[in-house]
Amino acid sequence: MAIVRGQFDKLLRPGARKVFIDDYNELPSSYNQILNVETSGKAFEDDLVATGLPMAVGKSEGEPISFDRAIFRGRVRYIHAGYGLGYEITREAVEDDQYSVLNSQGASNLARSMRAAEEVTAANVFNNSFTTVQAYDGVALCTTAHTSPHTGVTFTNRPASDADVSVATLKASTERYMNLKTDRALRIDMMPSVVLTGNASHWTVQEILGTKVVTGAASGGEIDTIVSAEAVNVVTQMGLTPIRWSYITDDDAWWTLAPKGVHRLNFFWRTTPTTVSGTDERAGVAWFGIHGRWVAGATDWRGIDGSSG
What we know:
This protein is an alpha+beta fold. It has one domain: 2-Layer Sandwich (Major capsid protein gp5 fold). It is about 15% helix and about 30% strand. It has a four-stranded mixed β-sheet with strand order 1-10-11-4. A four-stranded mixed β-sheet has the order 8-5-9-12, covered by helices on one side. Strands 2-3 form a two-stranded antiparallel ribbon. β10 and β11 form a beta hairpin. The longest helix has 22 residues, at about 105-125.
């Protein structure tokens, strides 16, 4: 439905000091600090994952060496989705608007709406990381049951019992990075550089990373008492950077992430936001819109470790 004069009759009369239309500071973009941002020239992008070889095995004198082969593990397909928004406004509403606001802020409002959609799409990689977002092995991105070609071998990037972020749980998360292996059980070198939370848990992370002595309950509870004034809080020496993302929906959830380019959490642009417009001269209605296409997801579970709290 087009914007008509009757919906904004007070804008047709002079006398108001100022007109406010979403006159608030906008959140800065965060997803491009967290995800690998790429461009795409196709309807979808496929990431194919295969293993390398296992550890070499012993060979007896005079016996032939053992042979093995790479194993195809899976495909992750990134399918672009379209996003858009628009509005219509009558010629009369534009002409009679005494404050020139009904259409003057349309382009900036459309762009702001698209930026919010980008952030939500990217944040849902994390919001759904314990349920529907999957990497190449076909299970939840953060789980205790990542599969392996070796019978009976599983990997984990989530605690066996979910817990809030604390000194103890950050240590445990870092240890899981220390124990990371390939699908053929070769150890790898990958460590976290970021602690990602929503708004509520951000304070706890700031206190943990900013306190030089060990604080909180002995088991790693809330940061309200000094457990030891002599013991050094080694978590502060791990080089972790806290990032607060307002689009994280679970107050208790948190993740540690390897650096960008090391982890394989991706955001693909198919079409960056583009404005469109047109008019219906017979009705005296102009329309303005914006559209774009993108997708976010995960190829590999290594490089992210998380807990729902």
